Structure formats: structure tokens, C-alpha cells
User: Which sequence fits this backbone?
């Protein structure tokens, strides 16, 4: 009996060979569709098919061959395209003049840079995806990032609401520009009357100086913000001096967590745990009376042992418990600058990975994109329905006055 031999059909041969050419099939299909769309576009402009003559009443316009072949980078590779031309000036709305990438790729590349891919790594990364012929030089990537500048300029000029109950302020220091001159990006986050947090301002400043903060606050006024209920920030004297000049009616809340760290710096390391526990009890005080009792206990316990630590606490008591004049449900959010510092984590992670960004402007736009992306994750403050009521009461000066802790 003859040994059975399986017959190989043409369909089976095609199936066996199709996997390596899938990408080529996709790109070839894309090339044909783009070329067909370009032909239909030129026909729509002329109002006639390729071999048809124009009607007597039609404007005489004639084809003029094709432009030079160029490759357009799309998601699956590079597609060779030749754009039809007319004798008169004409620009295709499908493939724009000098276009080398699809709109999706133009959006993707800055996002990859935003999330950690360095400018010099794009060529190596994309060679295996879209081919070595893709136009992905560092200069072209920098040009794509320039759209961030336009986004920032438009964003920084937008109008703001007139009143914000709470405003948090802080600065972040990306590694950018000359090493001898530290760059500061000053950030302000506000809570509107709907209980929603939003980034109000993000500008480059000089070391959080009073002049820098004053410029930021004045710009907020020019854009419509007229009243602030409570400013929450760390111990920067520059900010507090600027706030007094621009928004003198605003109440002040020193960041409790910053002050706890300052106090611990003046205590021996062996006693950190003990003093930290006392400060935590003070941090979680439920009323002005309880806070006053715990302050007296702290002074008695550590006044002689660590006078500098106690003096550091005493110096800011007038601004350390201002939050107690506001709804208790809001206290966890307004006694520290955690609201704003939490979004700085992504900035520090990205800028540290870049080692040092040569241009300060590039660093500013990078921080802008990182922070505005984080803004989408902001959640409303607890008991957000109390915000509008509290805001109106405070503006009318009819809010109950709680005894200030001293």
C-alpha cells in the first residue's frame, strides 16, 4: 500500500506565508486608500473625472502631475505617497504640505516624551516599529513638542472664577537650565464654589521670592480672581508678604506637616519618635480647646529640654490653627499642602529621570503637561456641598468666630 501523502493546496500555502506579510498588507492597503482619497479630492476640486473636459461655464483648472514621493509615518509603519498637483496653487487637506506623520503619531510622540522616553531614544525605539526611514530626528521631535507651548500660553490666559474658598500654593524645582541657577515653578491650586480643585496658575519664578509670588497673584487678579478665603502654604515669607499686598483679606494657614518637620529638626534623633507622637496628637486635635491644652502640655514637657523646638512651634501658632474656623469636614484637606504636593510626585519622577533638561522653557512646558494631566484625577473635597455656603458666609463676615488658639 502506498504511503499517504497530504496534498498541499494553494490556500494552505498562502495561509502558511501570510503571517510575515501582514504588516506589508496593511501598509499597502493604507497606501492605496490614501492615494485613492487624494485622487477623489482633486476630482472634487476640479469637478470632473480624470479624462473629462471641463464644462464651458466651469473655471479652467488643469492637473499638473504629482509631487515628489514622500513617506508618511502612520501607526504601523511608513507609507509612500505622491500628492497630485494642479497648475494653480493647491494644498491637499488630506496630506498637508511638508507633513511627514499622521495626526495620531504627532500626538503620540510628545506623550511618550512626557512619560519618560528621552529625545535621543526615539530613533532607536521607532526604527523597529515604523522603520529606519521614518523622519524622527531629535529636531523633528522638538518641533512636535512646541505644541505644548501653544497649549500653555492659551491655558495661562484663561479666565478664572471670582471667588475661591481655599487656595494651596507651593513650588517645585525641576532640574533644568544652568546648574548654578535653580529653577522654580510656582503652582497655585484653588477650590471653586462647586468643591472642585483646579490648577489656577503655573509659572516660572525666582526661588519663591516675594516679587515672584506677587507677580503670580496679580496675574490671577487680572484673569478674574478677586477673593480668596484661605491660603494654605509652607513657611515661605515671600508668599505671605505677597498675599498681604494683593489679597489682604485672605486668611492664612501654615502647612502643619511642614512645621512638624521643622520642629523635629531641632530635636535629637533619639527623641524623634516621642516628640513626633506629641505633634501628631496636636495635629489631630478636634477643637481649639483641645489644641490649647496640648500646646500647653508640649511647652511644659519640652520647653527646657528643647527650647528651639518649642520656639519654632510658638512662632507660627497664630497661623497654624486657622483651619479650625472652617467646616470640620474640610480640615484634613486644608491643614497642610498635601493637596498640591501629591501632584508633584509625577513631576519629580519624570524630571529626575531626565537628569537635567537643558532648556528652562522646555522644563516649564513639561511640568505644565504633567500637572494638568494629574488634574484629571482630582477629587472633590469632602462635604463639597458646604463650600458655596461657607464661601458666601465668609464673604459676608457672618461666619461664627471660633476662639483662636494661642
Assistant:
Amino acid at each position: 500500500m502506498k504511503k499517504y501523502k497530504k496534498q498541499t493546496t494553494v490556500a494552505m500555502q498562502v495561509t502558511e506565508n501570510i503571517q510575515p506579510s501582514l504588516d506589508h498588507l496593511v501598509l499597502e492597503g493604507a497606501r492605496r486608500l490614501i492615494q485613492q482619497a487624494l485622487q477623489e479630492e482633486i476630482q472634487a476640486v476640479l469637478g470632473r473625472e480624470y479624462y473629462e473636459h471641463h464644462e464651458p461655464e466651469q473655471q479652467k483648472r488643469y492637473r499638473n502631475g504629482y509631487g515628489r514621493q514622500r513617506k508618511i509615518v502612520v501607526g504601523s509603519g511608513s507609507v509612500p505617497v505622491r500628492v497630485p498637483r494642479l497648475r494653480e496653487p493647491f494644498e491637499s487637506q488630506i496630506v498637508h504640505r511638508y507633513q511627514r506623520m499622521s495626526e495620531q503619531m504627532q500626538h503620540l510622540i510628545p506623550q511618550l516624551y512626557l512619560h519618560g522616553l528621552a529625545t535621543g531614544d526615539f530613533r532607536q525605539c521607532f526604527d523597529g516599529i515604523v522603520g529606519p526611514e521614518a523622519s524622527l530626528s531629535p529636531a523633528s521631535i522638538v518641533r512636535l513638542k512646541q505644541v505644548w507651548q501653544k497649549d500653555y500660553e492659551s491655558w495661562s490666559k484663561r479666565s478664572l472664577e471670582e471667588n475661591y474658598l481655599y487656595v494651596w500654593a507651593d513650588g517645585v524645582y525641576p532640574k533644568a537650565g544652568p546648574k548654578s541657577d535653580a529653577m522654580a515653578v510656582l503652582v497655585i491650586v484653588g477650590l471653586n464654589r462647586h468643591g472642585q480643585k483646579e490648577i489656577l496658575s503655573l509659572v516660572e519664578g525666582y526661588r519663591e521670592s516675594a516679587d515672584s509670588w506677587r507677580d503670580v497673584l496679580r496675574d490671577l487678579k487680572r484673569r478674574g480672581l478677586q477673593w480668596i478665603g484661605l491660603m494654605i502654604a509652607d513657611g515661605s515669607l515671600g508668599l505671605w508678604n505677597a498675599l498681604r499686598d494683593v489679597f489682604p483679606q485672605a486668611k492664612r494657614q501654615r502647612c502643619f506637616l511642614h512645621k512638624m518637620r521643622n520642629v523635629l529638626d531641632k530635636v535629637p534623633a533619639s527623641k524623634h519618635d516621642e516628640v513626633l507622637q506629641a505633634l501628631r496628637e496636636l495635629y489631630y486635635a478636634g477643637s481649639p480647646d483641645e489644641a490649647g491644652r496640648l500646646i500647653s502640655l508640649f511647652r511644659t514637657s519640652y520647653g527646657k529640654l528643647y527650647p528651639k523646638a518649642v520656639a519654632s512651634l510658638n512662632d507660627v501658632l497664630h497661623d497654624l490653627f486657622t483651619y479650625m474656623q472652617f467646616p470640620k469636614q474640610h480640615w484634613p484637606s486644608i491643614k497642610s499642602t498635601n493637596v498640591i504636593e501629591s501632584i508633584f510626585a509625577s513631576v519629580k519622577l519624570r524630571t529626575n529621570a531626565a537628569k537635567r533638561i537643558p532648556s528652562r522653557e522646555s522644563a516649564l512646558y513639561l511640568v505644565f503637561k504633567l500637572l494638568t494631566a494629574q488634574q484629571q484625577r482630582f477629587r472633590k473635597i469632602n462635604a463639597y456641598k458646604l463650600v458655596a455656603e461657607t464661601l458666601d458666609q465668609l464673604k459676608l463676615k457672618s461666619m461664627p468666630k471660633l476662639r483662636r488658639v494661642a
The mean pLDDT is 80. The CA atoms of residues 41 and 294 lie 78 Å apart.
